[in-house]
Amino acid sequence: QVQLQESGPGLVKPSQTLSLTCTASGGSNTTSYYAWSWIRQPPGKGLEWMGAIYSGSTYYSPSLKSHTSASRDTSKNHFPLQLSSVTPEDTAVYYCALGRKLEGTSTEYEYDYWGQGTQVTVSS
């Protein structure tokens, strides 16, 4: 059974860079076959897919691509995310998830595992 744990700073000031990490434990051989995704949920809004790494390729939401950077450290089973030049609109609960990419698309996935999420507030 795979467990995912997100970690982050909790509070970030506007214009700063937000750095988050997702760490996977259990099922290390399994996680290599999955797409690793970051998803967020702003207060009062629905889930927003941010980006994913799958089979050596990285995919981003078009609306976030210009200031989002995701990577994967396979040796530590870490999945870091950086979001630059944050604004209060980036306040959200941030989740990482493992799943399978749907055929014919780079932005749609079926998720098998979710982390509990980490709250990030952007405020001065």
Brief write-up:
With 124 residues, the protein is mainly beta.
Oligomerization state of this entry? single chain
Radius of gyration: 14 Å
Helix share bin: under 10%
Number of strands: 11
| Total DSSP helices | 1
The main sheet comes to: 7 strands, mixed
Structural class comes to: mainly beta
Mean pLDDT: 92
Sheet-strand content, in percent, reads: over 45%
- Spatial shape: globular
Ends distance? 39 Å
State the order of secondary-structure elements, H for helix, E for strand. EEEHEEEEEEEE
Low-confidence stretches: none
Please describe what this structure looks like.
It is globular and about 40 Å long. It has one helix spanning 28-31; strands spanning 3-7, 11-12, 18-25, 35-41, 48-54, 57-60, 68-70, 78-83, 92-101, 109-114, 118-122. It is mainly β. A hairpin with a 6-residue loop joins strand 4 (35-41) and strand 5 (48-54). The strands form 2 sheets. Strands 2, 4, 5, 6, 9, 10 and 11 form a 7-stranded mixed beta sheet that branches.
